[in-house]
C-alpha cells in the first residue's frame, strides 16, 4: 500500500512512539501515574507533561502559553468561543472546525473570499466592528499558504484578534508570529492522535469550555495523558530539527508527481503552497471509480474530514470550480516517510487508471 493521505493524518514517528512508551507502562514502572497527583510518580508524570509543553512551544512564537487540548478542533472551539468575540470574520476556505464553530457563535459571520489561486488577498477589507479574524496558515485541501502576517496586521489595525489554524503548517513552516492564537494537532506532524494544543499570546483571557477540576491552566478540566503529551512533544522537537530537510524532501516528491501528472489541472497557487499537498482535477474523471481501481494507493477525493458526506468541497467551489470539476479532483498528500519510488509508482498508476476512463 502506498500512503498518500498525509493531510488526513501522518504516520507516527518512531521517536514519538518511543517517547510515549514509558508512560504506558504497567504498575512496576509507575508510568501510569496521574500527572495531577502530588506524590512522586504523579510529579514525574507532571514533569514529563511540562517537558512536552516546552517542546511544543519551541514551534511557536515567544510570549505566549501552550494549552493542551484533545484535538485541534477543541483548540479552535476554545479560541473562538472562549474569547467572547461576536464580530467574526473567517476565510471562505477554513476547516469546518472554524467555520461551524464561528457560525455557532455568530450565524451571519463575515466570509473573506479567496481568489482562483486559493489565497485571501492581503488587502481584503474587514467588516466594521470585527473582533476576531480567523485565517488558516496552510489549507488542508489544496495546500495554499495564506499571507497570514499581513492579514494579522490588518486585523490588529481594525482592533481585532487574529486566530490561525496552523494544523497543516505547524512543524513544516515557521509559526505565524503575528497571530494572537494558534491551533495545532499532534497527528498532523507525526505525533499521536487524541491531542492538540492552543497557543495563546500573553495578555489574552479565555473562558473555559469544559468545567470541572480545571487541571489544564483552569481552561480545560480533565486528566492530561502523559503518553500523548510526550509523543506530541517529541514529534514537535523532531519537526523543528528536521524542518528544512522535510521541506526539501517533499519539494522533490511534488516535482516528480507534477511531472507525471503534468496535464492535470492544479487546484490553487503553484507557488504559494506547501509541497506535501498536490490537489488536481481531470475533466470527466470518476474519482470513485479511480479509487476503486487503485486499492493499493491511499489518497483522498477531497477533505478527509468531510469524506462520505456527499457534499461538494467548499474549498474547491470557493476557488471557482464547478461542482463537476470539484468532484473530478483528487488530493495526493505525502511527507517525511514517502519515497520517490512510491510517488512515481503511484502517479503512474493514477495516470494509467484515469486513461482507462478515457480521460
Q: How does the SSE layout of this entry go?
A:
Elements: E1 2-3, H1 14-20, H2 40-57, E2 64-69, H3 72-82, E3 88-91, H4 96-105, E4 110-112, E5 132-134, H5 148-157, E6 161-165, E7 181-185, E8 196-201, H6 226-260, E9 265-266, E10 277-281, H7 287-293, E11 297-298, H8 314-318, H9 323-326, E12 329-333, H10 340-355
Helix pairs in contact: 1-6, 2-6, 3-4, 6-10
How is this structure best described in words?
By secondary structure, the protein is of the alpha/beta class. It has two domains: 121 residues, Aspartate Aminotransferase, domain 1 (Alpha-Beta Complex); 224 residues, Aspartate Aminotransferase, domain 2. Helix 5 links the parallel strand 5 and strand 6. The longest helix has 35 residues. The radius of gyration is 21 Å and the shape is globular.
Q: What features would you highlight for this structure?
A:
359 residues; alpha/beta; Aspartate Aminotransferase, domain 1; Aspartate Aminotransferase, domain 2; 2 domains; 7-stranded mixed sheet; 3-stranded antiparallel sheet; 10 helices; 34% helix; 13% strand
Amino acid at each position: 500500500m502506498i500512503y498518500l493521505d498525509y493531510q488526513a493524518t501522518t504516520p507516527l514517528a518512531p521517536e514519538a512512539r518511543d517517547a510515549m512508551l514509558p508512560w504506558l507502562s504497567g504498575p512496576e514502572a509507575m508510568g501510569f501515574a496521574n500527572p495531577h497527583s502530588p506524590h512522586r510518580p504523579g510529579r514525574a508524570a507532571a514533569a514529563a507533561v511540562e517537558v512536552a509543553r516546552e517542546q511544543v512551544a519551541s514551534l511557536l512564537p515567544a510570549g505566549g502559553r501552550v494549552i493542551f487540548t484533545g484535538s485541534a478542533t477543541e483548540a479552535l472551539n476554545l479560541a473562538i468561543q472562549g474569547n467572547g468575540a461576536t464580530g467574526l470574520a473567517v476565510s471562505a476556505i477554513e476547516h469546518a472546525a472554524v467555520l461551524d464553530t464561528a457560525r455557532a457563535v455568530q450565524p451571519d459571520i463575515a466570509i473573506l473570499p479567496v481568489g482562483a489561486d486559493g489565497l485571501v488577498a492581503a488587502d481584503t477589507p474587514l467588516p466594521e466592528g470585527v473582533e476576531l479574524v480567523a485565517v488558516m496558515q496552510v489549507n488542508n485541501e489544496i495546500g495554499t499558504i495564506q499571507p497570514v502576517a499581513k492579514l494579522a496586521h490588518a486585523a490588529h489595525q481594525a482592533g481585532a484578534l487574529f486566530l490561525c489554524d496552523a494544523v497543516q503548517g505547524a512543524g513544516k513552516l515557521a509559526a505565524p508570529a503575528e497571530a494572537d492564537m494558534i491551533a495545532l494537532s499532534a497527528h498532523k506532524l507525526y505525533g499521536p492522535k487524541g491531542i492538540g494544543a492552543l497557543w495563546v499570546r500573553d495578555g489574552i483571557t479565555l473562558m473555559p469550555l469544559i468545567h470541572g477540576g480545571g487541571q489544564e491552566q483552569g481552561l480545560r478540566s480533565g486528566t492530561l495523558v502523559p503518553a500523548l503529551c510526550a509523543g506530541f512533544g517529541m514529534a514537535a522537537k523532531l519537526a523543528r530539527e528536521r524542518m528544512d530537510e522535510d521541506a526539501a524532501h517533499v519539494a522533490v516528491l511534488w516535482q516528480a508527481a507534477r511531472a507525471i501528472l503534468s496535464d492535470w489541472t492544479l487546484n490553487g497557487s503553484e507557488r504559494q503552497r506547501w509541497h506535501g499537498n498536490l490537489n488536481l482535477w481531470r475533466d470527466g474523471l470518476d474519482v470513485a471509480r479511480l479509487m476503486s481501481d487503485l486499492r493499493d494507493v491511499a489518497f483522498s477525493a477531497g477533505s478527509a474530514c468531510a469524506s462520505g458526506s456527499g457534499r461538494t468541497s467548499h474549498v474547491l467551489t470557493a476557488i471557482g470550480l464547478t461542482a463537476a470539476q470539484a468532484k473530478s479532483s483528487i488530493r495526493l498528500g505525502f511527507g517525511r516517510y514517502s519515497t520517490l519510488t512510491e510517488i512515481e509508482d503511484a502517479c503512474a498508476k493514477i495516470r494509467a487508471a484515469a486513461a482507462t476512463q478515457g480521460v
